[in-house]
């Protein structure tokens, strides 16, 4: 495992990015040496590189229980994957308009108000440029969307519902499976409704099963689960016949790699590394999840022990709401001075995030917490802490002591 270069620091920002697993590093290194040939070449070295790519495609499909490895397309990362989904359903809607004269001129997209910017800003792009209509479903105070709210937003021209599987700041798991089941009951319409979930935060922490979720598109991001900084997109039966497939159109012009869906010579070593990261998740998910939940719970219990439950608010931790096993979003509410960014600024060891911004002296509380109708002062005092596979109790104890010292500095 790649380690933090500063041994004194304790990294608790694994929802932002993870280090490469040692086995992933080994697989990438071997591929850099042996798999450098062009995978489109017909000589043996090229065929070997292509075989490694297809092996990784199969490992990803196995991890998410995709029916066909061909449903997996390699991309640069989650942002590209999410853009491809919106672009694809947009083009599909234009094609439908050519066949059905009385369709609404613009397609309609539905997202939630806690989506990552790589979904939120894409949807806003279509709306601002007069290319589509967008409805935004608000989460409730638990941080989860209500399926009935989304169903009430559906219009005759609705073509895409894009809801993340788990939130990066609170860890709240969204009811994507229930949502998909209800939407599938509606299909048979002139305009099909496709369901997309950005599973970036969920993979490697909880079981992600494309068949169980019943989604048409699913975004995969390697650097969130100890893989390289590339990604992939699952598109259900994307190479099948028109009546069954999820439409997929490329963003870029070029050659015919990835079955014509993503032009450009494949990045074989990183694809091999992504496949290895997926293989490790398939083999070890239960162990990873158990270890992370044990450390997350230990962290929350230590915080309560040291600061008192009355002085804390665990955002996203609600009865009946599921969270990722590694995520703790906590506000220190005993003083308005305990702004999240100030706590981190005065910590000697903790490396984490607030989920908020501070530019030119202007502090902005987390938009995710505000979307949950959390009081501004509580949201401003929040830290987002996410443990990793190898986080230890000793590190947790050091972090809690570090935060305690930081609060003392702020008061002084």
UniProtKB/TrEMBL annotation:
Q: Where in the cell is it found?
A: Cytoplasm, Cytosol
Which domain of life does the UniProt lineage start with?
A: Eukaryota
Task: Tell me a GO cellular component.
Answer: cytosol
Q: What is its main location?
A: cytoplasm
Pfam families found in the cross-reference section:
Aminotran_5 (PF00266)
Task: Give yes or no: UniProt keyword Repressor.
Answer: no
Annotated GO molecular function terms are: selenocysteine lyase activity; transferase activity
Q: Does the keyword tRNA-binding belong to this entry?
A: no
Residues annotated as transmembrane = none
Which cofactors must be present for this protein to function?
pyridoxal 5'-phosphate
Q: Boundaries of each Aminotransferase class V domain copy?
A: 10-398
Q: EC no.?
A: 4.4.1.16
Q: Give the family, as the similarity comment puts it.
A: Belongs to the class-V pyridoxal-phosphate-dependent aminotransferase family.
Record's subunit section = Homodimer.
Protein name (database record) = Selenocysteine lyase
This protein's species is Brachionus plicatilis (Marine rotifer)
């Amino acid at each position: 495992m790649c380690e933090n270069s500063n041994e004194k620091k304790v990294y608790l920002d694994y929802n932002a990015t993870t280090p490469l697993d040692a086995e992933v590093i080994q697989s990438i290194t071997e591929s850099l040496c042996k798999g450098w040939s062009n995978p489109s070449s017909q000589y043996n070295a090229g065929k070997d590189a292509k075989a490694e790519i297809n092996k990784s495609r199969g490992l990803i499909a196995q991890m998410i229980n995709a029916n066909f490895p061909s449903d997996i397309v390699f991309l640069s990362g989650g942002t590209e994957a999410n853009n491809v989904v919106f672009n694809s359903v947009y083009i599909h809607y234009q094609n439908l308009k050519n066949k059905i004269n009385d369709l609404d001129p613009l397609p309609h997209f539905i997202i939630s108000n806690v989506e990552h910017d790589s979904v939120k800003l894409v949807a806003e792009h279509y709306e601002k440029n007069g290319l589509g209509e967008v409805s935004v479903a608000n989460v409730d105070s638990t941080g989860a969307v209500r399926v009935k709210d989304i169903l009430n937003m559906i219009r005759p021209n609705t073509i895409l519902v894009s809801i993340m599987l788990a939130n990066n700041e609170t860890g709240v798991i969204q009811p994507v499976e229930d949502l998909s089941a209800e939407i599938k009951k509606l299909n048979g319409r002139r305009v099909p409704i496709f369901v997309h979930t950005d599973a970036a935060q969920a993979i490697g922490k909880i079981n992600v099963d494309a068949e169980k979720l019943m989604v048409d598109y699913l975004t995969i991001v390697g650097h969130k689960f100890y893989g390289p900084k590339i990604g992939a997109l699952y598109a259900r039966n994307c190479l099948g016949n028109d009546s069954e497939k999820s439409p997929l159109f490329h963003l870029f012009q070029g050659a015919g790699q990835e079955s014509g869906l993503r032009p450009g010579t494949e990045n074989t070593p990183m694809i091999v590394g992504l496949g290895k990261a997926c293989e490790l998740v398939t083999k070890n998910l239960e162990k990873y999840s158990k270890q992370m939940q044990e450390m997350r719970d230990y962290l929350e219990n230590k915080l309560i022990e040291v600061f008192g439950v009355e002085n804390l608010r665990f955002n996203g931790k609600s009865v009946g709401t599921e969270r990722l096993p590694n995520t703790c979003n906590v506000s220190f509410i005993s003083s308005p001075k305990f702004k999240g960014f100030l706590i981190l600024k005065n910590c000697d060891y903790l490396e984490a995030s607030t989920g908020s911004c501070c530019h030119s002296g202007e502090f902005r509380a987390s938009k995710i917490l505000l979307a949950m109708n959390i009081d501004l002062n509580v949201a401003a005092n929040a830290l987002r802490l996410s443990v990793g596979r190898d986080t230890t109790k000793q590190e947790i104890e050091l972090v809690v002591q570090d935060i305690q010292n930081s609060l003392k500095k702020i008061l002084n």
